[in-house]
């Protein structure tokens, strides 16, 4: 009887707590990005993807520029962040459904499939949920590393420009917060690490980068350019060290 209870308990543990723990972000999403920033990002990304599927010619160009896959990956991370955010339900967005549509857009080469996925994403933005969509999803499988790095580089430039002329920093905090959010996926996706014993170092660097960009975003939200700039300068050093260790 004791053996049966132990087996049943383990089964319930694996069915209940372990799976969500495996799928959850490595840090509390609400401490990294606001739900308002997430909603704005989701809407902007879906609008851009809508332009990419306006017609077959636009889709072909977007594929050549690799923007559909990149935007799909960012949207997938954003949607999962909405799903796990403390105030995600207040957003009115069906996070899991939006994520599943984004995952299709991340990989598809079919115009019809992409267009259908954008329609699904648009519906998710207004709260229409797919009953088959589940909340749990591994963060390591939301976007590709190279697409993520391209997006981070683009956002870094936007943050840099905002800090150079800090007239209204809060309007640009979203860019720093999105980088910090993407670092959650970066921490979990360790396939770039060739030596297993170096995985802890990869995760530590990703965490440091995430924490530093969170400080950049916080400084920008508070309209404190010095705080944001100091943190941003520190993030550049983390990037350099990581590239020297794992890429160069």
List strands and helices in order, with pairings.
Blueprint: H1 2-23, H2 35-52, H3 56-64, H4 67-84, H5 95-107, H6 111-125, H7 145-164, H8 173-188, H9 199-221, H10 225-246
Defining key terms:
248 residues, mainly alpha, Four Helix Bundle (Hemerythrin (Met), subunit A), 10 helices, 71% helix
DSSP, total strands: 0
Class by alpha and beta content: mainly alpha
Mean pLDDT: 90
CATH architecture of the largest domain: Up-down Bundle
Number of domains: 2
Whole-Å distance between the termini?
A: 58 Å
What share of the residues lie within helices?
Answer: over 70%
Low-confidence segments, given as residue ranges, are 1-22
Number of helices, where a helix is a run of at least 4 consecutive DSSP H or I residues: 10
Briefly, what is this?
The protein is an all-alpha fold and 248 residues long. It has 2 domains: 102 residues, no CATH class; 103 residues, Cytochrome c/b562 (Four Helix Bundle (Hemerythrin (Met), subunit A), Up-down Bundle). The chain has 10 helices and no strands.
Question: Would you kindly provide a written description of the structure presented here, covering whatever features stand out?
Answer:
- 71% of the residues lie in helices and 0% in strands.
- The longest helix has 23 residues, at 199-221.
- It has helices spanning 2-23, 35-52, 56-64, 67-84, 95-107, 111-125, 145-164, 173-188, 199-221, 225-246.
- Helix 4 packs across helix 8.
- With 248 residues, the chain is mostly helical.
- It is built from ten helices and no strands.
- It folds into two domains: 24-125, no CATH class; 144-246, Four Helix Bundle (Hemerythrin (Met), subunit A) (Up-down Bundle).
């Amino acid at each position: 009887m004791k053996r049966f209870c132990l087996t049943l308990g383990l089964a319930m543990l694996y069915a209940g707590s372990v799976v969500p723990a495996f799928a959850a972000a490595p840090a509390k999403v609400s401490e990294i990005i606001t739900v308002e920033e997430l909603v704005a990002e989701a809407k902007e990304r879906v609008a851009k993807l809508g332009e990419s599927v306006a017609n077959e010619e636009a889709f072909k160009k977007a594929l050549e520029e690799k923007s559909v896959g990149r935007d799909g990956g960012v949207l997938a991370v954003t949607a999962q962040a909405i799903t796990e955010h403390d105030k995600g339900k207040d957003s009115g967005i069906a996070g899991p459904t939006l994520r599943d549509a984004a995952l299709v857009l991340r990989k598809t080469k079919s115009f019809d499939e992409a267009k259908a996925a954008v329609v699904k994403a648009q519906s998710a933005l207004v709260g229409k949920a797919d009953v088959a969509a589940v909340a749990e999803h591994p963060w390591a499988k939301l976007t590709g590393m190279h697409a993520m790095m391209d997006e981070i580089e683009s956002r870094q430039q936007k943050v840099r420009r905002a800090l150079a002329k800090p007239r209204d920093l809060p309007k640009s905090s979203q860019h720093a917060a999105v980088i910090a959010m993407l670092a959650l996926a970066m921490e979990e996706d360790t396939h770039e690490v060739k030596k297993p014993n170096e995985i802890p170092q990869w995760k530590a660097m990703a965490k440091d980068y995430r924490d530093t960009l969170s400080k950049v975003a916080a400084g920008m939200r508070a309209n404190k350019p010095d705080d944001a700039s100091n943190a941003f300068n520190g993030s550049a050093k983390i990037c350099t060290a990581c590239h020297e260790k794992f890429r160069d």
